[in-house]
Structure formats: C-alpha cells, structure tokens
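Can you give me the bound-state structure? Components:
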Amino acid sequence: MQALPPPPPAIVAPAPERSVGTVGQVRVASAMTDARVMIDSSFRGASIVVYGAVFNPTERPADVVVVVRGPDGPVRLVKKTRNMGFWLNSRPVLFEGAPGFYMTASTRPLSDIADFGQLRRLGVGVDHLRIKAPQESRAVTRYGVRDVVVSRLGEDYLDYRRAVIRLREAAALYNTDPDGVEFVDTGLFRAELDLPAVAPTGQYFAEVWLFQDGEPVSVSNLTLTVEKGGLERDIYEFAHRRPWSYGVLTVLLAALMGWGASRLFRRD
Amino acid sequence: MDIYLPIAEVSVNWPLLVLLGATVGFVSGLFGIGGGFLMAPILIFLGIPPAVAVASQASHVVASSTSGVISYTSQKAVDYRIGGVMAFGGVVGALLGVELFRYLRLLGQADMAVAVSYLLFLGVIGTLMLYESLGQILRRVRGEVLPHKERRRPLWLYGLPLKMRFPRSGLYISAIPPFALGAFAGVLSAIMGVGGGFILVPAMLYVLRMRAGVVVGTSLFQIIIVTAMTTILQAGRNQTVDIVLSTLLLVGGVVGAQYGARLSGRFRPDVLRAVLGLIVLLVGIQMGLELFVRPSDLFAFAPGVPE
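Here's the bound-state model for the whole set.
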C-alpha cells in the first residue's frame, strides 16, 4: 500500500504557465488595460488598470509595488516672502528635471515593505523621487535673465523639494496609495492609475516590483503613451508651428464674430 | 459638459464659459467698455493659467469692440485720425508690453506684476469714478445746479511739437500726448489683458478734452487695433492664445454685448458710472489682495519654462 497523497489545498490556484527557467522562481508579470491614452475634447482624465500575476512557489509572503513615472520636465519654483508688508516672489529656482507624473501603489505602506536605503536606491516612493538639480549652487544668466539659481539650495533645498511634491500632489499629479494594489484572487492583483486632466503628454514608464523580505526579487516594465488626439493635437501643433498665422486667424475670427453679431442684431 | 482646452491644457465646463462670456459681454455693452478687466480675473479663478487667460481673452475684447465701432461709425462718432495716432502708440506699447510680460514670467514675477497693476490702476480709477458719479447723483437728488466745468486743457499740451489737427474731436494739439496715451494702454493690454478703455476714456475726456461724443467710439477703435496686435503677439511670442477658449467666450460675449447695449439707454449715465466704478474698485481690491494676505502655500510654480 502506498501512502495517501496529501490533501489538496483549500483554494486551488490556477497553475501558472511554466516555461523553461521560470519553474520554482518568484516572478511577477503585469499588463495595462490601455497602452495609449488619447486626449480629445472630452478628456477629463483617464483611469487605467495595471494588473498582473505573482508566481510565488515559496512560503514567504511577497509585496507588490506599482510605480508610474510621467515624462521629466524642468520645474521652476518661487517662494513668497514678506517684504515691508507685501508678499513678494523670490527669484525662481530651477529644477532641471522632475517627473510630470508620479504615483506609487502598493500592498502595504512602502516603509513596511523595504528599508529606506533600498527604496532610495530603486527610486521608489515620492520621498525618494529623483528630482534633478545640479550639484553645486551657482547663479547664472539663463534665457536672458540674470542671477537664476540653478542649484541645490543648501538647507533650503529640502523645503523646495518638498514643495514640488506637495504642489504636484495637490494637482493629483503625484500620488502615493499604500493600499492601491489589491489582490482579487490568489496571485492575481490589480492597481488603478488615475491620470488627471492636467497630466502631461508623453511617454510614461511603469514598473511593477515584487518585494520579498525587503528585497526586490522581480520587476516587470510597462510603457504608456499619453498624447493629444484629433482636433486638439491639430490646434496645439498649429499654435506652436505657425504661431503668427494662428494669432492672425484668432483675431480675424473674433472680428468676424463681432461684425456678424452687429449685423444680426440690427436686422431684428 | 466639460471640454479640454488644447493650449491651456485644462478641462473646463463649456456652458459656464459661454455664460461667462455673455455676462461680461452684457456688462461691456451696458457700460460701453471692453470688459477685459472683469474677464481675466474670473478666468484665473476658474483655473485657467493666468498667461493663457490674459492672452486669450484679448480677442474677446476685439469682438465686442468691433460691433461697438461699427455702430459708432454709423453715427459718425469715431475720430479715425486721433484714433490712428493712438493706435500707432498702442501697437508700440503692445510690443513693449509683451516683451516685458515675457521677461517678468521668466523672473517669476508675472503674477505679482498683474496683481500690482490691477490694484493700482483699477483701485485708482474705480475710486475716482465712484467719487465723481456719487457727487453728481447727490447733487441731482438735492436739486443743485451742476458747477460749470473748466474747459481748459493743461497748458503743456500746447507746448509740444508735432502739432496735428483733429477736426472731429475739435482739437489742434501735438501728436505726442495721444501717442503716449495709446502706448500706455498698449502696455497694460499686454500685462493685464485689458483693452485699456477704463484709462483711455477718462484721459481723453479730462486731459485731452476731446469732444465727448467721439470719445467712446474712438477709444473702442484704438482698443481693437491694440488688442488685435496683443493677441497676435502673444500667440507668436508666447503661444498662450487658446482659440477654443476665446471662441467659447466670444459666442456668449457678442450676444451679451448687444443686449447690454440696448439696456444701457434705460439708466442714467451717472448711476451707470457709479455701478461701474464700484465693480472696478472691487475687482482691483480682489486682485490686489494676494499681496497682503498670507498665502496658504509659501511656494508656487513659476510658469514660463522655456523649451
């Protein structure tokens, strides 16, 4: 008599597709519901679902972190200071590059998933966001304006950095959701990516990290393109490629409408 | 009901914009002004980036002034000669103003310049209008006789060279003061997004002492040229003109302006001026408030990052 086979598990997980070399390996696979977002006249923002599967043959629990970065762009920031009773702007500080969109969604708060050093190294989380500023402080002439500080600001640098994040968070451009990754079934997760109407156009990069015992064990990369479509793109490109003709057209349209209205109402 | 504005890159409720255009158009028809000073602050309040708001609504001023000039021309109430001199000044002023605004944006001081200009000019003009019109209403109610107005022009107007004859306005003066006045309005047009009627009309009446009947028509003519120029320059230099935004405002604006103009005959001019003075003053204070109130966030993004 042979021994009875062990009792089946309570929930039978669908057997993951096994290909050579991945058997027994902890791995994450993911996809998005849309790889392309078109901004048209009715655009009010978009909601995209990042979903995927975790293959975890080990006993140790794993955490999923979804990071989405929008295109980098320069950011200028002013600080208001009180001078003789008036609130005035300081000289603008230029950060040479900050992502135009940044969100993280995870199964737990990031600080519980991995330690500070690990998150900093991977650039995961708004606190570890790489906002590019040149290494040393210097005032230079830029775009015809004198004394622009293009730099780290010493002690103030952190205040400015935090302000970039705070202002972007207020505009729903930066977001941290510690419960954003939801397991819908064993090994199957989803996270929502909400793009506000002000989201910049360009190429977005998403990383889906799998952490185990505070270490990244697997990553899956995705891209998303946000672009203006249809008439919106035509108008935008017209305004930027032939700005003078665009201006003349706007004025002619306005004059024509003013003239039309006065004709229309005189007949009444 | 929301529409995405391609240049402003925000999504707004479009019926609200048409309604706003109609309301401002109505006010502009009622008081015979461009209404730009009212439109820009409301657009900024709605979340349109200030640079786009200021540049796009200049074309609204073009439209409402066009229908105004057409009706004034048929009444022979436009002095194209002095208007042309002022418009020439205005174009020069607009050129300077757009460059100045561009520079201020790079310095991160554009919003402050807008706030100061509104507080200063609207505050002063609003106060003067309110004071003058309330005095007039008070005298009328008491049944007093209006004091005889001094019809003398400031003497320095005669000392300047380049004299020109402006028969329709009843003037024989140097071309420099109207040119300078036009240039000043042009600078304001670029910075505040206004036509400048609230500065031009009192200056033409009380400084140049033009014939009262041609003042409004002529100022509207100058405003069309200057705001048209400003729109083209803002589009060409700063790419801040949103044609979708300006068209939506126009649709409401041209209709509202016609109804406003019809209604204006039913009110006494001094009452209209008092109400307008009050509106001007309130807008100026509202816009200037940010200079005095502690901001909720000490940091702010400075727009105008060059590509």
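A couple of observations. Strands of chain B lie at 2-5, 10-13, 163-166, 171-174, 299-301. Chain B touches chain A through 62 residues (CB under 8 Å).
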